[in-house]
Amino acid sequence: MLFAGLALALIAGRATSDDTGPPPNEVRDLNEVFIDRVMVVKGKGAAPTDRSLSDADKRATALRAAKVTALRELSEVLSGVRISGETRVRDAAAGSDQVKAAVDSIVGGAQVVYESYDEHTKTGTVYVALTLDGPNGLTQNLLPTLIAHKAVGASAAPAYASAVASATASAATAAPAAAPAAPEAADALIIDASGKRFRPALINRIVVDNGSVLFEPTRIPIGILARRGCASYAGDVGKAKAILASHGAKNPMVVKAAGVVRSTDARISARDAAAVYSADKQTSFLDGVRVVFVM
């Protein structure tokens, strides 16, 4: 499923033709959705049998019914997406007319990426897709509304500040010119949360043992969030490194999560937090969202 985005791009150009190639794979499991950065769902529809229609009208009616079904399926998948913690999109939409309107608009704007019609059974099949990133994606079109209406579901917590990192920086300033060169600073971060019941969300945070927040995506400019989301996701560290390499990162830091808070906040130790904080001061990988969570 890792290359669903590529497959989507390849078939998009033939979205209105019949049986011109194999249909795409559905991507509706939420872990896969966040890894592939796209939702793909299928709908089927049949031409009505209670009235006489031309062959062209049967085709159009069946495909229209299939698209309605596909959009309904897409809405179900989208509704289950976690915003943060246990708060899902359906919860936010139920509590805010603005969020509901944004969700309805996003679903209505989903792209038809494949359709076919069976002349024998008079049934149509339509696949629709919704990307998480980019100008027509879920993040850019929904996250600002969620933040504005305080539907992010993330508890307030102090920003992390590292006394260890500050002390290290002071020592480095006072070091003699002959001191050995420091190792190359990390330019990206991998949080290995495998085996920790970690769940992907529109807002995944990194918190520290003392309760402070090291990484809070809602503070990132929306332009960056729209391009990359709050982070990337992978099934193992090797794939995480490959994702970061595609973004130009050469020296990612790998940190093992100590636990998970509220299912979507990865918790790390104070020692690891100090190391991340210190490296980020040099290369700003947190602000650039060069972060991958391994699930």
Structural write-up:
The protein has 295 residues and is an alpha/beta fold. It folds into 2 domains: 4-148, no CATH class; 163-294, no CATH class. It contains 10 helices and 13 strands. The chain has helices spanning 4-12, 30-36, 55-79, 89-95, 97-108, 138-148, 163-174, 222-228, 237-246, 270-283; strands at residues 38-46, 82-84, 87-88, 111-118, 123-131, 188-192, 205-208, 213-215, 232-234, 252-256, 259-261, 265-268, 291-294. The strands form 4 sheets. Strands 9-13-6-10 form a 4-stranded parallel sheet, sandwiched between helices. Strands 8-7-12-11 form a 4-stranded mixed sheet. A 3-stranded antiparallel sheet has the order 1-5-4. β7 and β8 (213-215) form a beta hairpin. The radius of gyration is 23 Å and the shape is elongated.
Alpha-carbon distance between the two ends: 15 Å
Number of strands: 13
**Tally the helices: what do you get?**
10
Helix content class = 25-40%
What is the strand content?
A: 15-25%
Radius of gyration: 23 Å
Question: Taking strands numbered 1, 2, ... along the chain, how are they ordered across the largest sheet?
Answer: 9-13-6-10
Largest sheet: 4 strands, parallel
What is the molecular shape?
Answer: elongated
Order of helices and strands: HHEHEEHHEEHHEEEHEHEEEHE
| Class based on secondary structure composition and strand pairing | alpha/beta
Uncertain regions spanning at least 5 consecutive residues: 1-17, 165-182
**Overall structural domain count:** 2
